[in-house]
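Before going further, learn to read the protein records used in this course. The integers have meaning only within a learned vocabulary of local backbone shapes. The record below shows the convention in full.
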Amino acid sequence: MKYLNSSNVDFLATYLTLPILNGKALSDIRNTNCSDAFKQTYEGISVEGVKNKLGPKMRVQYSLYVGDEKDIIHTIWLRVPENITVFEVMQLAQVADNKYKFQWKKMGEKIYIYDIDNITNDFENGQFWLLYLGQNKESMEHLIESPDKVTVKDGSQIIMWYKRAHI
């Protein structure tokens, strides 16, 4: 073990030794589904679970705005169960249409959306995906809460807007 902590470590020896120290063999890799390693998991309900929720349904609108002047707008209407979060709506939308495919990261207790439709946050230009929610255009409010903590109501409009953030 001292040898592994020293600066003269042979990487090949380490690569071959670590599985043995963990009580594994290289043949154990056949039991590993490597494609699952790339999927993001979320501790909440799965997309199938959301679709199969019993109870009343409601309609929500989910839009993507790109640019400070809304140069590109994509909108989708979804029938969803009551008591659904913004994050779950986003998951359903990405299953319905690839345009809404997003990437996220959990930092502490907050989910951070950093890429939608292959448009990634641009720190140099100060452009980020920002969450807005409201019942109509006049009531749109910028939210800083985590998307998995915000529940939507019937007729809600969810907007993820890629624009310059003013601090």
The radius of gyration is 21 Å. The chain has a mean pLDDT of 83. The helical segments are 2-5, 11-21, 34-37, 47-51, 86-96. DSSP finds five helices and eight strands in the chain.
